[in-house]
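Now for a typical sample entry:
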Amino acid sequence: MNLQTMLTVLFTLGGLLLVAATLPLALELLVLTVAALFPAPRRRDPAAEHEMPPLSVLIPAHNEEAFIERCVHSVLSCAGSGTEVLVVAHNCTDSTALRAERAGARLLVLNNPSQRGKGHALSHGFEVILAGPYQGVLVVDADSVVDDGLITEVRRRLRSGALAVQGRYEVYNCEHSQRTRLMTLAFYAANVIRPRGRARLGLSAGILGNGFAVHREVLARIPYSAHSVVEDLEYHLALVQAGIRVEFLHEFAVRGEMPVTAAAAKAQRARWEGGRFRMMRKWVPKLAADIFRGRATQIEPLLDLLALPMATEVLLLVAAACLPVSWLRIYVLSVFAVVLFHIGTAAMQGPGIGKTLRSLSTIPGYMLWKLWVLPEVWRTSRAGAAWVRTERESRADGRAM
C-alpha cells in the first residue's frame, strides 16, 4: 500500500468517525424542527378552578438569598387556592431560609454536607409532599420567575390525565450581556423548539430541570433517586424506560437567571455537558437493548442522549470540512444547512432575527471558549464528580452581589 492510498484510507476512516459523532444531533435537529412547525392540537378541558387537583410547588434552594424572595412572590402571585409553596433550604450558609419564610413559603431545612446537589433536595421535598394531600408537584428553581398561567395550566394537565409535564424553560436576564443573549437563543432552540417537536410526534418532551411537574402516582411508582450532576436528564431517562411520557406545556414559561461571567458559565457548562457524557455511558446500552427488543419509542431518547452540544458539533463539522474527502464535504454542507434551519426557526419564533444576528457574531469567541472548557467537562464526566453550584453575579434587584 503506497502512501497516497494509506492517507486516503485514513481520511475516509476519520470522516466516518466524524459522521458517526455528528449524525445523531443532525437527525434530531432535522426531525424535531420540522415537527415543531406543525400546529398544536386543540385541547378541550372546561375544568373550573375549584375542580383542579391540589398542587405543591417545590423550590430547591442552596444559598439563593439574592433571588428566593422574588421566586416565592412570583409563584404565590398566581398560585390560587389548593396550591402550596415549599422551599427546601439545602445546606445553606446564608439567609435563604429566613427570606423564604418571610416571603410566605413553607420551609424545610436540609443540612447534610454529605448530600450535595439539587437531586437530594428534590428527593427530600418529594418525600415530604407525598405524605400530604397533593396530587402533583411542580419544580421551580430558586432563581426563577413563572408566567401567570403556568400553575393553573399544570393543574389542568394533571387533571386531564397527564403524568408529567414540562413548561418552557427560558432565560430571565436575556439582555444582560452578549453571553446571555446567545444563551437565550440556545435555550429557545433546545428548550422550546425540540420539546415542541417531540410533543407533535407523540414523544416524551423531556425534563429540563426547571418548570417540570409530576403526578404523585409517578413519584410513588418511580421514586426520585436521581442524584447526579444532571439529575433532570437522569430522572427523565428513568421515566422513558418505564413508558411514561412527559407532556410539553408550550403556552407558559419559567425563566431562570443565567451566569454572566466566564468563570460561572464555565462551571455551569462543564456540569451540564460532563454530566451528559456520564449518562451516555450509563444509559446508551439500556436504551439500545430496549430498541432491539422492539421498543421503537426509545430511538429518539437514544439519539438525544448521543447528540453532541451544538458548539462541539460545529467544531467537528469544521474539522470534517478540512479533510480531502468529497462526499464528506457534501455531508458537512447538508448538516450545516440543518443547523441553520434549526437556529433560524428558533430565532423567528423566539428572540427575533435582529437579536439573533448580534448573538451569532459572538460565536467564534464562544468556540474558543468551548475548547477552554473541555478539560473541566472531562473532569465532570467522571464517576463521582461533585455537584458544584453555579455562582450568580447579580441580584434580583439588579445590583452586583
Observations:
- Residues 397-401 have pLDDT under 50 and may be disordered.
- The first strand starts at residue 55 and ends at 61.
- The chain has two domains: 3-38+276-380, 52-261.
